[in-house]
Amino acid sequence: MSKVLVITTSLRAKSNTDVLAQRLIGGAKDAGHEVERISLKGKQIKFCIGCMSCQKTQKCVLKDDALPITEQVKNADTLVFVTPIYYYEMSGQMKTLLDRMNPLYPSDYRFRRVYLLSCAADDAAETPERALNGLQGWIDCFPKAELAGSLFCGGIDAPGAAAAKAEALENAYEFGKALR
């Protein structure tokens, strides 16, 4: 099975996306995957300064928590990004991390499949579209990788409300089980 890396991007304690990520992880483990989870809570991730040194060295000049995360991403078979939807887009910390993983572009990265699990108060089907488009833009820079699937859990607003949403919890579990 695959080495799956789940990156949760909400900074809120006991966030809805963390609750759903735990169910996804349970499904992935039950399917036989090796799963590791990284939370961006408490991580120091600076903004990319656009120096492009990383394109020659495959290392970022900024020294912070993005460096070890980037190395873990490079060595995973499957990536799952988990984000709340803020203003119809991925969380800012997720976007900042994607920008900082620019050293992967010229590298011999291992990941092939990328997934997105998102959550929002709004439950309209189009709510996650911009987050998906943003992630797809990042994936497009990695020709050996593909957006392999996404799950959106809408209508979840109050902190911790996901724990009482049986359908969303089951969907997250099944999504995890179906990871390749």
Furnish the topology, listing elements before pairings.
Blueprint: E1 3-8, H1 16-30, E2 34-39, H2 54-57, H3 66-74, E3 78-84, H4 92-100, E4 113-119, H5 129-139, E5 146-153, H6 166-177
Parallel strand pairs: 1-2, 1-3, 3-4, 4-5
Helix pairs in contact: 1-6
3D structure, described in words:
33% of the residues lie in helices and 19% in strands. It has 180 residues and is an alpha/beta fold. The protein has a single domain (3-177), classed as Rossmann fold. A 5-stranded parallel β-sheet has the order 2-1-3-4-5, with helices on both faces. Strand 3, helix 4 (92-100) and strand 4 form a beta-alpha-beta unit. Helix 1 packs across helix 6 (166-177). The longest helix is centred in the N-terminal third of the chain and has 15 residues, at 16-30.
User: Helix coverage percent of residues?
Assistant: 25-40%
Order of helices and strands: EHEHHEHEHEH
How many independent structural domains?
1
Structural class: alpha/beta
Q: Which superfamily, in CATH terms, is the homologous superfamily?
A: Flavodoxin domain
- Give the oligomeric state of the chains in this entry, treating copies of one chain as homo and distinct chains as hetero: single chain
Strand order of the largest sheet: 2-1-3-4-5
- Number of β-strand runs: 5
Any guess at the CATH architecture?
A: 3-Layer(aba) Sandwich
Shape: globular
CATH C-level label: Alpha Beta
Query: Rg, please?
Result: 16 Å
- Please outline the major beta sheet: 5 strands, parallel
How much of the sequence is in beta strands? 15-25%
